[in-house]
Amino acid sequence: GDTFGHYRMLGLLGRGGMAEVYLAEPLEAPGSRVAIKRLLPHYADNRKFVSMMRDEARIATAIEHPNVARVFEFGTVDGTHFMAMEYVDGVDLGRVLRRLKAGGLPLPLPASLYIGACVAHGLHAAHSLLDADGHRSGVIHRDVSPHNVLVSHAGEVKLIDFGVAKARSNSTKTKSGVIKGKLQYMSPEQAQAKPVDARADVFSLGMTLYRMIAGRLPFTGQTDYQIYDQILRKPTPPPRHFVPELPARVEAVLLRALRKDRAARFDSAGAMAAVLDRAIDELEPGYGPAHLAALLAGVI
After folding, report:
1. Cα 232–233–235 angle (5° rounding)?
2. Are 266 and 272 in contact (CB under 8 A)?
3. 39: part of which helix (H) or strand (E)?
4. pLDDT tens digits, 125-171
5. 93-110 pLDDT, tens per residue?
6. φ and ψ at residue 172, rounded to 5 degrees
7. What is the C-alpha to C-alpha distance for residues 3 and 25, in angstroms, rounded to an integer?
8. 175, pLDDT greater than 60
9. Which of these, 28, 152, 217, 219, could form a disulfide with 156 (CB 3.0-4.6 Å)?
10. Residue 143 is a catalytic residue
């Protein structure tokens, strides 16, 4: 019930190493809901972290797409830096997959393809973002993973967290040799701290889709080094080794997205989205939010 600027704070949603996220209500719009991401107090005077949050807000505010969670505002209240974001009433994909695994259940293939297609469409919107001069902004998410995909109880799919995203307009630049993102989902070029483009996000989406469909990641290990080595050198295990009934056309999508050579992958997230949309139409025409909402209601 405490007020924070022109918001009423309703409860803590989560806390990370850099920020905490609250459910809040705008004072001028009682009954509506937003998520407030606040930089933790001990980072208030850290220019690097403030700049990172400002860059994240700038990127996400500019992207207008139903599969990307919106950011409405970046500001400061009593020395606390914050972002006001779209509140997605649901759970992250990682939690969905963990609950299914605990029950010994797979994520149905139409749901996997639909979620993958939604994320691909959202990524394409981010990659296609133009700056004030009409040039590509060069946005690369760099952290596509189940943790950063939200599924709402209404069956919406939203890509979130551009906190480590790369863009030409960023005030904070990643130093040479520094790796951003989660190693388990990284492309080979990202894992080696090489320059990345949209095809790095295509690879990470391929990893996420592989986990949804096969129930596991293609590259695993007991240590980060073992995972790193497999991402760089191990051929992608054909997903039909784990899901024998998987249609060949779906397996081809996964293997293409996970090529070591980025020139052999889909050249854009939009191209991957188009192939996934066709696969859904062939497998279960009309699959959409209502079907996903029904699935989520039975899982969470």
Report:
1. 115
2. yes
3. strand 34-39
4. 999 999 888 888 899 999 999 999 999 999 999 999 988 888 765 55
5. 999 999 999 999 999 999
6. -105, 120
7. 9
8. no
9. 152
10. yes
Contacts of 235 (CB under 8 A, 6+ apart): none
Q: Write out the two tokens for 251.
A: 């397996």
Q: Which tokens sit at 9? A: 């704070």
At 135, list the tokens: 């040039």
Query: Rounded to an integer, what distance in angstroms lies between the CA atom of residue 254 and that of residue 114?
Result: 14
How far apart CA 291 and CA 110 sit, in angstroms, is 9
Residue 300, CB half-sphere, CA atoms under 13 Å: how many? 21
Residue 41 DSSP one-character state: G
Give the distance, in angstroms, between the CA of residue 89 and the centroid of all CA atoms in the same chain.
16
| C-alpha distance across the termini of the chain, in Å | 27
Q: 3-class SS at 69?
A: coil
Contact criterion met (CB below 8 Å) for 254 and 213: yes
Rounded CA separation 44/3 (Å): 19
How far apart, in whole angstroms, are the C-alpha atoms of residue 210 and residue 208? 5
Amino acid making up residue 210: Y
> In the block, which residue shows the tokens 């970046």?
74
DSSP assigned state of 68: B
Q: How far are the Cα atoms of 1, 3, 11 from residue 7, in angstroms, in the given order?
A: 9, 6, 12
Per-residue pLDDT tens over the stretch 176-234: 444 556 899 999 999 999 999 999 999 999 999 999 999 999 999 999 999 999 999 99
Q: Which of 92, 143, 161, 201 is catalytic?
A: 143
Predicted structure pTM score? 0.93
